[in-house]
Specification:
Helices cover about 40% and strands about 25% of the residues. It is of the alpha/beta class and about 300 residues long. The chain has two domains: about 120 residues, Nucleotidyltransferase, domain 5, CATH 3.30.420.40; about 170 residues, Nucleotidyltransferase, domain 5, CATH 3.30.420.40. A hairpin with a 2-residue loop joins strand 10 and strand 11. The longest helix is centred in the last third of the chain and has 25 residues. It is globular, with a radius of gyration of 19 Å.
Length: about 300
């Protein structure tokens, strides 16, 4: 069998494209491209193709290409059905990549592939019953039961970000109102901070912001280190919502372990610590006593490693 696969993690702010050694899951090389300012199918597929060509230049033993994308996926046909954070709808990514590279292409949901990566080589390695939740541009999750990914009747199981937490609440990128993602994602925190700054509230985060640039997880962390009142307020608010969503999942599915990952979890310890403490407190007493929490171990590479091992 060929020794390498290419794994692609397609998210709301960036594309990671990596060459993965299949035996060990080791990342041999990785390319990062931004997506936030260049959403839409043309720009995204162009960047993916360029990245794959760059990685493939020195390796002809590529077994497969795996893509983990935000949004709802038709895995059999390899179509991104709806990814609002990417402005992509009915994009047949499998067909496009097949026509360029003539290598088997597999497509899955971004958190599903992150869970697969963590299951094979990371925090879920010794556990067959866990939920993987990633917090970044959006909030996504995947369910592993008896060692298998639970996809549900339409392949959309695990959409924790679209759990309704406020019936008449904020609009979400999906078009609905009151979704957890609109309250607990990095994007939600960013919008809350920007709104407060426009109203004249003071914050040290302004020292890190460049004109036209977005608020990042690392800026949030630096502001928390300085005990910035505004940033702490909105990060704490997001943690309240996320912990409530996690507690609901713990009560409903009763997993052994919850793995948390994504840029916000990785960069902001305050957010992670607050969230797991509150999630345990909000869960029913018996599952609360037994539930374990871990951070994703593979960091930024969970998605690309998992994508490299996608097969249908």
């Amino acid at each position: 069998m060929k020794k390498y696969s290419i794994g692609i993690d397609l998210g709301g702010t960036k594309i990671l494209i990596a060459l993965i050694e299949r035996e060990s899951g080791r990342v041999i090389d990785c390319i990062k491209k931004k997506t936030k300012k260049d959403k839409g199918p043309k720009n995204i597929t162009k960047k993916m193709i360029e990245g794959i060509e760059e990685l493939q230049a020195n390796f002809d033993e590529v077994y497969s290409i795996g893509v983990g994308s935000a949004g709802q996926i038709d895995r059999e046909k390899g179509i991104i059905l709806a990814a609002p954070n990417l402005d992509c709808y009915d994009l047949n990514i499998k067909e496009i990549l097949n026509s360029h590279f003539n290598i088997p292409v597999f497509v899955g949901n971004d958190v599903e592939v992150a869970a697969l990566g963590e299951q094979k080589f990371g925090a879920g390695k010794d556990c067959n019953d866990f939920i993987c939740i990633f917090v970044g541009t959006g909030v996504g999750s995947s369910i592993i039961k008896n060692g298998k990914i639970i996809r549900g009747a339409t392949g959309t199981a695990g959409e924790i970000g679209h759990m309704i937490v406020d019936l008449n609440g904020r609009q979400c990128a999906c078009g609905g109102h009151g979704c957890l993602e609109a309250y607990a994602s990095r994007s939600a925190i960013e919008r809350r901070i920007e709104g407060a700054l426009k109203k004249g509230r003071k914050s040290c985060i302004l020292e890190y912001l460049e004109s036209g640039k977005s608020i990042t997880s690392s800026m949030i962390q630096k502001s928390i280190e300085r005990e910035d009142e505004l940033v702490l307020q909105y990060v704490t608010e997001a943690s309240e919502y996320l912990s409530g969503g996690i507690a609901s999942v713990i009560n409903f599915i009763n997993p052994e372990l919850v793995i948390l990952g994504g840029g916000l979890i990785e960069a902001v310890d305050y957010f992670y610590d607050k969230t797991i403490k509150k999630a345990r407190a909000k869960s029913l007493p018996i599952p609360a006593e037994k539930i374990k929490f871990k951070k994703a171990m593979l960091g930024d590479y969970s998605g690309v490693i998992g994508a490299a091992f996608l097969e249908h």
